[in-house]
Amino acid sequence: MRREAEPLDFRALLAIMRRRILLLAVVVVLVTIAAIVAALMITPTFTASASLRIDPTQRSVIENNDPTQNNLPAEAIIETEVSLITSRLVAEQVVRELRLDRDAEFYEAEGGVAGIVGGQAEKSAIDETIDAVLKKLTVERAGQTFMVNVAFTSENPRKAATIANEFVQSYLDASASLRLQSVSAQSAGLNSRLNELGREVQQADAALAQYRSATGLVSGSDGAPAVNAVDQQIIPLTSALATAESDAAAASATANAARAQVSRSGVESVSGVLTSSVIADLRRQRSEVLRDRDEITARYGPLHPDTIRVQQQLSGLDQQIQAEAQRIVSALDSDARAAQARAAALRAQLNSLRGQQSSNSRLTVEADRLAREAEAKRNIYQQLSTTAQQANQQRQLSETDSKLISAATPPASPSFPNKVLFAAMGLVVGAVLGIGAVFIAEAFDAGLRTIDDVESALGVPYLGSLPEIAAKQLVFRGRKSQPWEYVVEKPLSGFAEALRTVRGSLALLDVGRRVQVVTVTSALPNEGKTVTAVSLARVLALSGDSVLLIDCDLRQNALRDLTASANPKVGLVEVLTGEATLDEAIVRDSVERLDLLPLTKVVFTPRDLFNTEVMGKLIESVRARYDMIVIDCPPTLAVADAQALAGIADAVVLAVRWGKTPRDAARAAIGRIEQSGGIIGGVLLTRADLNARSSFSRSDPSFYYKAYKSYYVD
Questions:
Q1: Same domain for 623 and 538?
Q2: Residue 22: which domain range?
Q3: Is the dihedral of CA 25, 26, 29, 31 positive or negative?
Q4: Cα separation of 468 and 493, whole Å?
Q5: Which of 56-60, 187-191, 349-353, 459-463 has the highest mean pLDDT?
Q6: In this predicted model, what pLDDT tens digit does every residue of 658-695 receive, in sequence order?
Q7: Chain center to CA of 444
Q8: pTM of the full predicted structure?
Q9: Using an 8 Å Cβ cutoff, are 166 and 97 in contact?
């Protein structure tokens, strides 16, 4: 039965780490110590830093007026300045100013100091020193700001600050010098271009004046295009015509409205009549006369002379009002006709002038072209003149767009090595290497520890794990005892319970008949097979079975301590050779119901004692006398006797030392047992550390040992 191994999940990884914690800790500690020692042995270096502000908005006048320069992003300008700081031009100025070619930290001349040699050798020394200095220079922009940090690293803190400040000063000097050269060259070019443009402006003005004189064109005011006499007349005449036509239309509309009102409501409804002051005065008089008439009529009657006189006055006033209204309406018609006549006259005059204008249009177009050309050259000249004046002012000021914000000061502590960082890196690297070492050790660890290891690697049943018994636990009544004494002294211990579990597992094996003969073997020596065989036999006896324990390890005689008190004279070999009977060779154990068939001495014989008919008959005879027969065999891979004994047993228990026996050895032993016809009852892990919980998988019962150990009496 082969069982698939559990997937390697986080808990399995954690279990591996806990199992190999000592290896992990050793690697981490060693690597961390090595990192700290390396940090202490490295020559410390100091880094001093100065801060510059580079403002890309403060450009020269010429640059601001140059589209190719003005479109450069601020990042490009700042990177250009950073490149200047790290250039060999600035570095050479620093080296020569501070005589760094004489400093052993940066240059060591062969056969003497670099400064005392001349010619090509001195140039080579300067170049090598520049290379060394630039390697220790760091120039970085502070994020997205205009601040630039200039840092220099040296073995001496004061030297680091001095060189950093010198780099800043040399950069400022070089920047100002380059700026002055650029502005001077550009200013000279501007002045030359100004002279040329001045001559072109004069020529354009002269050509325009000559053309106007020849054609009779007049210059427009405020820079307007040139016009001739006809154009000058058309402009105001057009405006006058528009006004006249508007007035004529208004007068005609007023007259038409008046006539319409007269036809509908009479002359007195005309708006002009209603607003006339003369008519208003006549109506006021009429109102007074009408009031007098009413009073006289009421007093004297309608036929009285005064009444007739007042009535005549009233009729006269009505006639005057009517006459004045007619005059107003006639005046409106006259005004409309006069306005129309004036508009017609202006229109005729304008049409005549436009006829003359069409013949003069070609002359005007040419004059306008000459005027625009002259104006354009004049504008360019004025702009260039302003730029040249500003450039001359900048050349006199020779200011740079970079400013020193903070000078470098000698650092109080070294920048390298950072001992804390080294220790932290050592810790991290050590952890990585330690984990790698753990996995390498795990990969090369062929030991078996869990039910998964047994069933997936060997493909046989797992019978359980026998816990390791500490030496102090084997001291009973003042003397040290053998492990098989433990099951008698501590029958409720975890050790005894594990063997009872083996007993139960063997009883459930399906081999075609009851399992009665059990062979206990191992792949290699010193794996606990004898302790397992004796302890299993005693547990079986304590459980009520009659048990015979046979010692078949001819070369070890492992049961001699168990039978020493009986001092047997004959044993298994003598029974097989016919020198003694079975009853003569059997020794009673201190545990009731357990008999022993020991070896009286170590036997080295070429004879095959076990693969014989005599051995088979012996086993058949004891089957009838005992419930269980336990055979202690030699290691399977060491001695061939184990194969013969496996073939005559009902089941074979393979003792495998916990975490020690290689898997390949266990596989080889199983292969030999199966080759001989033996039936593998299962694998029993011996000397297991059940407290090492991290060594077990969760599917292994031993993983939960701490939870149920209180049931045992150890």
A1: yes
A2: 1-42+419-445
A3: negative
A4: 12
A5: 459-463
A6: 988 999 999 999 999 999 889 999 999 999 887 765 55
A7: 38
A8: 0.51
A9: yes
